[in-house]
Amino acid sequence: MKAKKLLALLSQFLDADSKTQQEEIKSIRTVLKELKNKERDLRAKLADKIDTDPEDAEALQLKLDVIYAQRRKGVMKVHALKRHLQTSENTETKSD
Amino acid sequence: MLRRFTLPLVLLFLAYVLWVGSEFMELALGVAFFIFGMICLEDGFKTFAGGALETLLQNSTNRLWKSLLLGFTSTTLMQSSTLVSLITISFVSSEMIALAGGIGIILGANIGTSTGAWLIAGLGLKVDIASYAMPMLVFGVLLLMQKSKIIKGVGNLVLGVGFLFFGIHFMKEGFTAFQLGFDLSTYSMTGVYGVLLFTLIGTLITFVMQSSHATLLIVIAALAVGQVSYENALALSIGASLGSAISAVIAGFAANLGGKRLAAAQVLFSLVTTLLAMLLINPLMQLVDWMSSCLGIGAEDYLLKLALFQTLFRVLGAVVFMPFISQVESFLIKVIRFVPKSIEQPIYIYPEVLETPSTVVAAVRKEVQHLFDNAFGLLASGLSLKRSTLESEESLSAAVKATRRIFPIDVENAYEEKIKSLHSEIIAFISEAQMRESTRAATEELYVLRQASRDIVSAVKGMKHLHNNLSRYGLSANLAVRDRYDQIRLQLARLLRELQVLLAEEPTSTTALALDSLRLSVQKASRTMTDELDEMIRYRRLTANIATSIMNDENYVTDIANNLISAVHALLTKEAQETAESFNLDDVEIQQLIDKEAGLPL
C-alpha cells in the first residue's frame, strides 16, 4: 500500500514541470534541516541524561535512531529526484 | 459565599472564647494535640500502605469472621476506626474487597473502637501519661528527620502516639480547671429526654472533631471529674458511635459506587446500633452492673463501667446486623446505582458551526482534542498518577516507583461521564454535518476525525480492563510482578506525556514525524516485555497464571498506545501530515530498527 502511494507520488512528481520539481526538492530540504536541528537538540539532551537517567537516555537514543532513519530516507529521495531532474534536462538538451 | 466566611468566623469565635475563658484553653489544647496525634498516626500508616497492611487486607476478607477480626485488630492497633473505614472504602472502591467483606471490617472496626475506651479508662486517667509522651515526642522528631521513608513513617507513628498521650493529659487537666468555672452537671437530665439530648450532643461533638476516640476521651474525662452523670455519659458515648459514621459519609461522597455503598452500610449499621442502645439503655446498664460485679469492677468505678457499656452495645449492634449482611449488600447494590450527573458537554460543536464545511472541520478537530484531553486525565488516574505529574517535567520513573496506592477510580463511571457522552455528541454532529452540502476534502477530514474519536474511546475501554489487574497486582509484594506493572505504567505515562506535548506545540513539518519514534518505542517495549516474561516463566520466577495476566495487560497497553498515536496523528493538521509523508517510516522500516536495537541481523 505504501509502495503504491510512493509510486503515485513519484509519477505525480514526474508529470510536474521542472519548477514545481525544484520547489518540492526545496520543501524536502527544509524538513531535512528541521530534522537536523531536532537531532542536535536531542543530542544535547542525551549528553545531559546519559549519566543521570539511563532510562530517559535510552528513550532519547531511540528518537535519534528514528530521526536518522527519516533523514536518510529524505536524503535518498532528494538524490533520486535530482538524478531524474538531471536526466530529463539532458534529454531536453539533446532533443533541442 | 457562606462557606468563604465559615472558617474566619469559627476562628474568630474560638479566639474570643479562648480569650475570655482561659480555663477553656487547656481543654482546647488537649483536643488539638489529640487530633494532631491522629493525623501523625494516619500519615505514619500511609507510609506502610501498599505493603504489609494492604496484603493483609486482601487475604483476610474472604470470610465474614476474618473481616470482623481484621476490622477489630486493625482498629485496636491503630486506635482509629476512621482510618480503618477510609482504607476499607478505598479498597472496596478499587474492587479489591467485596462489599460484604468491607461491611465485615466496618463491624469489626466499630467493636475495636471500644478498646480505646478501655485504654483511656484503664490507663489514661490513672497513670501520668504525659511523662511517657515527652520521650516519645523527642524520639519521634529524631526519627522524622531521617531520610528513609520507612524510618520517617515510624517517626510519625511514635510522634502520633506521643501527641495522643499529651492530648489526653491536657484534656484531663482542662476539664479539672473547666469545672471550677462552669458546671456541666447542672444541665444533666435523666430519663428519655436526657438520653436523647446527650446522644445528640455526643453525635455533634464527634461530628465536629471527626473522631469518636476524642469524644470518648472527653466523656471519660468529664465523667472522672463529675462534670456529667454516669447515665448522661453513656448517652454521650452512644452519640459518639453515630457521629463517627459522618466521616464515612464524607469519604463516601469522594468515593465511587462501591465506596458510596460501603459508607451507606456504615451509616445504616450506626443507626441500628444507636437505636438499639438508646432503646435498651436500662437493660444494658443492668447487664453492665452484673458483669462488673463478675469481673471485679467496683460499683463506683464508672470509667471502666462506661468502657464495658461501650463494648456491649457495639457487640450487640454487630450481632444483630451480622445475619443480614448479604441482604443489606443486595439492597445497597439495588438502591445505590450509577446516576450520570456530571455528563460532559461539548464545548466547540454547536448548530451555528454547521454553516460552512471549514468551520465544521475546525470545530470537530477541537472537540476531538477536548475528548483526548478528558481521556488523558482518565488514563492518568487509571495509571494511578496525577495529571499534574504527567503535565510537569517530573521524573515519571520516580513517580511510578513512589506509588503507594492504586487510585480507586471507577473507570466505568468516568467512561460514561467523560468519554462516551462526548463521543456520542461528536458522532451525531458529524452525521448532521454530512447531511449538508460539503466539500470532498472536508468529508474526508471528518471521516478521519470520527475515526480518531473512536480510537480515543477504544483506548479508554482498554484502560477499563487494565485497571482491574493493576488494582490486583500493581502493588504486588512479589517484586517481579510489581516491576512488570511499573514498566507498563511507565510506558503508557511516557506516551501520554509525549502526545500531549505534541498536541500542545504549534504543528510543524516534523511534528507528525515524531509519532514514528513513539510507534517504535511501543513495539520495542512489547517485545522486551514478552522476552522478559518468557525468561521468568522458564526460571520459575513467575507462575504461568500471573505471567499470562501480565501478557494480556501488555496487549491492552499496546492497543491503548496504538489507538492514542492514531488519534493524535489524525488530530495534527492536514498540512503537517502531508509534508511528513515522504519521511514517515513504514512498518517494515520500524521493524528493521527494532531488529537493529536487538542486535539481530537485518
Question: β content of chain B, as a range?
Answer: under 5%
The major β-sheet of chain B equals: none
Rg result of chain B: 30 Å
Order of helices and strands of chain B: HHHHHHHHHHHHHHHHHHHHHHHHH
Q: Helix amount of chain B, in percent?
A: over 70%
Task: Report the span from N to C terminus of chain B.
Answer: 69 Å
Helicity range of the residues of chain A? over 70%
Low-confidence stretches of chain A: none
Structure description:
The complex is a heterodimer of chains A (96) and B (602). By secondary structure, chain A is mostly helical. Chain A has a domain at 30-96. Chain A has helices at 2-15, 18-52, 54-95. The radius of gyration of chain A is 19 Å and the shape is elongated. The termini of chain A are far apart. Chain B is an all-alpha fold and 602 residues long. Chain B has two domains: 24-335, no CATH class; 351-598, Up-down Bundle (Methane Monooxygenase Hydroxylase, Chain G, domain 1). Chain B has 25 helices and no strands. The chains are: A mainly alpha (96), B mainly alpha (602). At the A-B interface, helix 1, helix 2 and helix 3 of A face helix 22 and helix 25 of B.
Task: Give the topology.
The complex is a heterodimer of chains A (96) and B (602).
Chain A lengths: L1 H14 L2 H35 L1 H42 L1
Chain B lengths: L1 H19 L2 H26 L3 H8 L4 H15 L2 H13 L5 H26 L5 H15 L4 H33 L9 H19 L2 H13 L5 H25 L2 H23 L1 H15 L6 H20 L3 H11 L21 H26 L4 H5 L4 H6 L9 H25 L4 H34 L5 H26 L9 H25 L5 H28 L2 H7 L6 H12 L4
Please describe the structure with a list of short key phrases separated by commas or semicolons:
heterodimer, A: 96 residues, mainly alpha, 3 helices, 95% helix, 0% strand, B: 602 residues, Methane Monooxygenase Hydroxylase, Chain G, domain 1, 25 helices, elongated
Short description:
The complex is a heterodimer of chains A (96) and B (602). Chain A is mainly α.
